[in-house]
Records
---
Amino acid sequence: MKILSAVGACAVTVSLVGCAALEVQPYQPAPHGVSIIKNQYGSYSVDSIRVVKTGSQASGEALQFCFAQNVPGITGTPLLNPSKTRITAQGRDQVTFIVPMSMGTPLNYEMAFSLTQSTVNGQHVYEFTNLKIKGTWTANETPLPGTSEASLYIDSARAKAETISGAVSACLAAEAS
């Protein structure tokens, strides 16, 4: 009896350890500027992507112009705060990454986001939030996954955020000169 009890306890212990190993893990370490949170479903998603570029304070008109010209898929008019130091817009863009071990097959998805730009101590801070993706394989929009298995989504989304913020910063620099 004692042997069967020990075997039973061992089986329970092994199965519990096995279950813990199957638990969804966040992408760690998260790339610089990427914030990952545990969502209400027990999985992980990207809360925000923050990109910082050097630059000086821009006028409200320059901010609106550069956002309108460089934020892809912009919806509506970019909104300035009353002091014209921060601007927010909704956008969406196609994002692609190469699927590993598929002989270079690209995977395309659409990323929707809210983008807020502010200037802090001579730096342009771009905050991408409300990140949602919709693949070419589904009609549903879902939060941008932040799990370890979704590292390619995170890396490609961060690269897209860098591209968009770089284009806006370059436009702001051109408008200032």
Note: The longest strand covers residues 106-120.
---
Amino acid sequence: MKIHIIKQGETAIEGYKKIELLPGFMLLGLDEVSDNEAEVIFANDILDSLPANVIQQTISQIAGKLRLGGTLTLGGTELRTFAKNVTNQIIPEDQAVETIRNSQSMVNINSLADLVRSIGLDIETTTISGIHCEVKCVRN
């Protein structure tokens, strides 16, 4: 099974089971997925919608659905890159304010990688593109 976790109202990748992140940080439909069932979970743009105090719990909940050898991709706004780009005026002030207004949190990619490792997943890749970061990991 392939899963795409998206923000409410977004469109999932065709051929993937859609799981929506709802207000209150509920993952609609995730309870229908058995533990160890998913071979791929793509959650490349949900971390900004989670407050920092629920990120670890949410990632652990999602990771529990991965089968051995399965991959999980997580993503969100990378805090240090965002701050650097605002400070260096690469991101205009109005765009920075809008990004902050629409975010519950931002992540440090190194801290995210450490968190993923702490729940037993191995890092395959970490990438930063603009202010967006992604960590792809595997359950071994």
Note: The chain is about 30% helix and 35% strand.
---
Amino acid sequence: MSRIAISNRHGVLWARSDGPLGNPVALELETAVLEAATMGRYAVSVLDLTQTPSIDSSGVGALVRLQTALATKGRRLILANPTPAVADELRLRDLHAFFQIAYDLHPDMDQEELLLASDL
């Protein structure tokens, strides 16, 4: 059973993964988000990390590849509401600035609000 949920909220792709972000979930999430963003032609994709208690190197790699793939297509990826452990791991790997990371995001926000939200 997949722990990945993807939905369209106000023209924005929202994805969520419940549980630790490591193999094989990381690869499944990367593939699912990239496919959905490409097929749906979403300009903005949000990955909600509220329910992701930890991330390992495979999860970090998947996020980097996803960010790179979407950016090369002129699309945005926002990491929303990362847990402290996930945010710390990104900082430790000096990747915090590589991503747009925002807190207090919710699916009822429109695309403009999402793009303006960013926490460093």
Note: The first helix runs from residue 25 to 40.
